[in-house]
Design a protein that fits this description.
4 helices, alpha+beta, five-stranded antiparallel β-sheet, elongated, 38% strand
């Protein structure tokens, strides 16, 4: 027996509920804590930059994004004999569809430790994620303030660390790159 991480497939949106149920089962003894060591819903912290339509000022909203909607990780030390009881109890939880990569009659296969660490410890920095989440290269934006207010253009580059982006706009028939603050633009639909 050795501890390893496994991926559980769930209905999307049920991940937190299933995490609570598994933790309740561990506390009540329905799942053996010497077999089930933990369960995680991989998330990343994201800072989203939005412009307030009333005041015209930008505001940053902190939220958590699920890295793998519809999936969660569980750390198990499955015994050679008796593994079916534990995996069956987990599969019977409402919202769980099964272990990724196996049939219900098969012993689940763990993911490589490097893959588990990559999922559980995302290397995204919140400041880098802010612009990447709300704005992408190739998006069309409208400039809201400054001498180029009302101009629109295509996002060519995003520098999340400086909260700036380069937007290509047409001025007098020529495409001109402008550097603007992320708070000075609005995404066009």
């Amino acid at each position: 027996m050795s501890r390893a991480w496994y991926i559980i497939h769930t209905y999307s949106g049920y991940e937190n509920k299933i995490e609570r149920v598994i933790n309740q089962y561990l506390e009540s003894g329905e799942l053996d804590p010497s077999i089930v060591y933990g369960v995680k819903v991989p998330v990343e912290d994201v800072v989203e930059v939005r412009r307030d339509s009333k005041t015209g000022k930008e505001k940053k909203i902190n939220r958590k994004n699920k890295l793998l909607p519809g999936y969660m990780l569980i750390e198990l030390d499955l015994p050679d004999i008796g593994w079916k009881a534990t995996t069956s109890a987990i599969r019977r939880i409402s919202g769980v569809t099964g272990f990724v990569g196996t049939n219900p009659s098969e012993r689940p296969r763990p993911i490589p430790p490097e893959e588990a660490m990559r999922i559980l410890n995302p290397e995204n920095v919140a400041s880098e994620a802010s612009a990447a989440v709300y704005y992408n290269v190739g998006d069309f934006v409208k400039i809201l303030t400054g001498p180029f207010a009302t101009f629109s253009g295509k996002v060519e580059e995003i520098n999340a660390e400086k909260d700036k982006m380069r937007v290509s706009v047409q001025i007098f028939g020529r495409v001109t790159p402008l550097e603007v603050s992320i708070g000075e633009v609005e995404k066009m639909v």
